Amino acid sequence: SHTLHLLLFVMAALLTAALFAVASPLLAFDMGQSTRCVTIPNQMKVCKDVGYSEMRLPNFLGHSNLEGEVVPRSEDWRPLLQTGCHPQAQAFLCSIIAPVCLDTFIQPCRSLCAAVRDSCAPVLACQGHPWPEALNCDRFPAEEDMCLTPLAKFSHFIKDVPRPACQNCPSVEVAPAMKTVLSAFCHRDFAVAAKLHRLRHATGEPEFQVEGRVEFIRQGALLPYDTKHLLQEWLLINLRCASALVRPGRSQLYVLTGSLQPDGHIALVHLFPWHKKDAGIALATRKWKHHRC
Fold first, then answer.
1. Top-confidence residue, 183 or 15
2. Is the pTM of this model over 0.85?
3. Is 277 found in the same domain as 167?
4. How far is CA 27 from the centre of its chain?
5. If you ran DSSP here, which 8-state letter would residue 100 be given?
6. If we measure between CA atoms, which residue out of 109, 103, 116, 110 comes closest to residue 54?
7. 119 φ/ψ sector (left φ>0, alpha ψ -120 to 50, else beta)
8. Which residue, of 125, 159, 193, is where some domain finishes?
9. 211 in a domain, yes or no?
10. Inter-residue contact 233 to 210 (CB < 8 Å)
11. What region holds the FZ domain (predicted)?
């Protein structure tokens, strides 16, 4: 009986430890365990240009198998990083999945985690994923400890530049009448013409891209130097909507109209695919310069 009780206790303890390790990878990581340094492999593209060439294994998620675990799991982060949700998102994620190989462990600071989380968690949510429990910011050290801090030059980045919204898919109208297009120009904050391209097979490149120049019809709150990048981010954040706009391996010219929301985010509202035979769009863009709403 005593042996049975002891066996049940050990099994319960092991089960509790296993569940704790699954739920709390960072807490389960033992700073005292032996580690090794390896070169960041070329196929680990999300961290290849992060600024250092060697990483420590196991990483801060407890992953130690480079080819079987670390590299494949790193690919899960590529769609998020491609959105540009925060300028230090790559540095933050790579400090966890590919920690720099120094004499001491350098984790991201809690403040850096919070800054990246606040900008990138809404993007993850838009793509149908919660912010991972393994990246709970409370698990990282405060700034008085030795850790990776947020860079001051990026502190106002999110507030000063318009950002794409996570949104319901905008309405798309094929072969619209001239009056419909002019009405959209009048009732929206901005209107642009842009060619959207979708790769047939995404091999590391973003699946959706904006080809060539963006032509301004009504500039509104858009910044000329940033608008192409802004539209591409919108496509990468709103993947479900983007998939309905362009077929794989094809490009499509669109007139995109939208609004600047009170929180500073840009939302697309009314879209018109622009085909050569669409006289309504061509007439509307010509008449707009002299049109009174």
1. 183
2. no
3. yes
4. 26
5. B
6. 103
7. alpha
8. 159
9. yes
10. no
11. 32-150
